[in-house]
Amino acid sequence: MINVKVPLGVNVLDEIRVTGGKPLRGRVSVQGSKNAALPMMAASLLHRGVSVLRGCPKIADVYCMEEILEGLGAVTWWEGRDLYLDCAKADRTVISEENTGKMRSSVILLGAMLGRNGKGFMGYPGGCVIGKRPIDLHIYALKKLGASVTDRGNFISASCGKLTGAEISFAKSSVGATEQGILGAVLAEGETVLSHCACEPEIVWLCRYLRGMGAKITGDGSRNIRITGVGELTGGDMKVPADRIAAGTYLCAAAATRGKIIIENPPEGELDAFLEVYRKIGGQYEGKSGKLIADGSGVRFPVPFLETEEYPGFPTDLQSPLMAVLATIPGESHIRENIFEDRFKLAGELNKMGAFITASGRDAWIRGASSLSGCQVAAEELRGGAALILAALAARGNTSIKGASFIRRGYEHICEDFAALGGIIEDTGTTSYENIQIQEKNKAD
Ligand code: EPZ
């Protein structure tokens, strides 16, 4: 076990170095989806035996979730790229604040613990720099299912005899709260109807995984989901789908460097809103025998106005990667971020590289530079960090990106992939279970 103790704030393994200016070219495969794998891992707690996630991404957030599930009594192991979770004895019901602080998405384990054992106690999920990230909708859903939930500000305790089916009408669309309601309802007594649900693909993948375990769910992917509770679930066994946000990030890399890439395993039909914008900036793409061929050589048009929306609108998680592309396009672009309150932290770092971006509230105006210049920049969160890599690959000269551990939370081999596409890039650290010790100080969202 590597236990690199470094002075707080300095992490010698935490830097990505890039020499930019070369168009990316070649073929690349996309990792398994972080945001599909995490709820699937939580759902595995609902079966008192072994489940398997095939092609699961080996990323820090998955390792964190593994650690949390092991803390509940699960046994997990990897066979190649497949993650096995034996939850036969996963009957502990307390998750430490230290652990929930690392993982925003740990909060959905509450619904799974209630479904399994009728109680759950956990520290508040990690905050992050992209916004407040409240959990009121999660608590609302669990209370509707009959749980008594006490929110002590830094600790949540929930208990119920057995959850009972209910009508749950979310005040606003929330991916995590929709997942929370689903995980609480699948073993509840009777019918549950969830309305104003999130429609993100990750909801559909979670429901597909749960149906494979014997859950009775219809309507996923629409605003209204109906669930009939069952007595127990069998083991899950499903391939983790390709990560649509990683795919979009790679397409942005081709656009930022004016290169041409082929994605071997594109997520079918999950990137339409993004690809529409890709075309608008001058990018070209075509689907051919199951692959996606993208040509960024013609990228040159700014975007007069774009706003992020719930699925199927333009995804908030690709807002930062797109901003990095727009920073390479002369002319004025305007982005409105409707999902999170504070997701423009990247702007200051791109301005250091020669862009001219002003952000106020939910709006950012980007005046791109015909060429960015490499320099020292720092990532503060996952998608903004990935966007800095894209800008560095496009920039003239060398860039050092601190805060690489944020990027390793969600991208399994982004540096290796860009190097294979001709990028000159080096990650001075590695993502491994041991490295989690190092990442503790970098709270995940
Ligand atoms: C999921 O986060 C994703 N994370 C996020 O990806 C993604 O950006 C987000 O959905 C939106 O698509 C995972 O799936 C692990 P939300 P989640 O609940 O579920 C507000 C990444 O980079 N809200 O859909 O936390 C919330 O503040 C990450 O991979 C409440 O008000 O997002 C936000 O404004 C970042 N009360 C809006 O809803 C609540 O109880 C949407 O958030 C919950 C959320």
Would you mind describing this structure in some detail?
- By secondary structure, this protein is of the alpha/beta class.
- The chain has helices at 34-43, 60-71, 97-100, 109-117, 136-144, 175-185, 201-212, 244-256, 272-280, 319-326, 346-352, 382-394, 404-408, 414-420, 436-439, and strands at 15-20, 25-28, 50-54, 75-79, 82-86, 94-95, 119-123, 148-151, 155-159, 167-169, 191-195, 216-218, 225-228, 237-239, 260-263, 284-288, 291-295, 306-307, 332-336, 356-360, 363-367, 376-378, 397-402, 424-427.
- A four-stranded mixed sheet has the order 22-23-1-24. Strands 2-15-17-16 form a four-stranded mixed sheet, with helices on one face. The protein has a four-stranded mixed sheet with strand order 4-5-3-14.
- It is globular.
- The protein starts with 14 loop residues before the first strand and ends in a 6-residue tail after the last helix.
- Mean pLDDT is 93; it is low at 1-10 and 432-445.
- Ligand EPZ binds next to α1, α5, α6 and α12.
Please tell me the overall pLDDT: 93
Q: Going across the major beta sheet, what is the strand order?
A: 22-23-1-24
Backbone structural class: alpha/beta
Largest sheet: 4 strands, mixed
The geometry reads as globular
Strand content: 15-25%
What's the tally of helices? 15
Multimeric status of the protein: single chain
Helix content: 25-40%
> Could you tell me which ligands this complex binds, including any ions or cofactors?
ligand EPZ
Count of DSSP E strands?
24
